[in-house]
Amino acid sequence: MHTSTMFRVLLLIALVPAVVYGNVGRACTGGRPLSTNVNIPGCTAPPCDLVRGQDVIAYIDFTTDRAVTSMTTVPTATALGITAPYPLPAEFADTCAWLEGSSCPLSANEDVTYRLTIPVLPIYPLVSLSIEIDIVDQNDQSVTCFVVDARVVTASN
């Protein structure tokens, strides 16, 4: 086997696990801490489809870099060049209420998984967008942040 062909095969083998786990998040601006992994079931690569009238579930893995007593999820959407808050219902914005296998307060260097629910309202326009999810602590300082590219679609029959 030619060296370059072998390299490509090894590269492909190395990338397969990333596709299987589907980390669809990318870094936020401003040097905010990036999530370890963002998994949206049904989406292996962005853009992820957000179906109108349904909730999107995402599992976010991150490591705290400090002690945290409470956290709030602050989503922002950018579509057609306009950035605006993407309000979450209060029960979904309370990050601590949706941690899997742990709870607040969190100590420094704790690995956690957060189950995020994002309602996609039936009135949302069919557009491509990027959604920034910034999880902030009790002092409004970012604990973890990621951006996912998505598009709003209608339910397929």
Automatic annotation (TrEMBL):
The keyword Cytoplasm does not apply. GO terms for cellular component: extracellular region. Residues 1-22 form the signal peptide. The keyword Disulfide bond applies. Residues 25-150 form the MD-2-related lipid-recognition domain. It is found in: Secreted. SMART domains: ML. One of its GO terms (biological process) is intracellular cholesterol transport. Keywords: Disulfide bond, Secreted, Signal. InterPro entries: Ig_E-set, ML_dom, ML_Npc2-like, NPC2-like. Pfam families: E1_DerP2_DerF2. One of its GO terms (molecular function) is sterol binding. Belongs to the NPC2 family. This is MD-2-related lipid-recognition domain-containing protein. It comes from Anopheles farauti. The lineage of its organism: Eukaryota, Metazoa, Ecdysozoa, Arthropoda, Hexapoda.
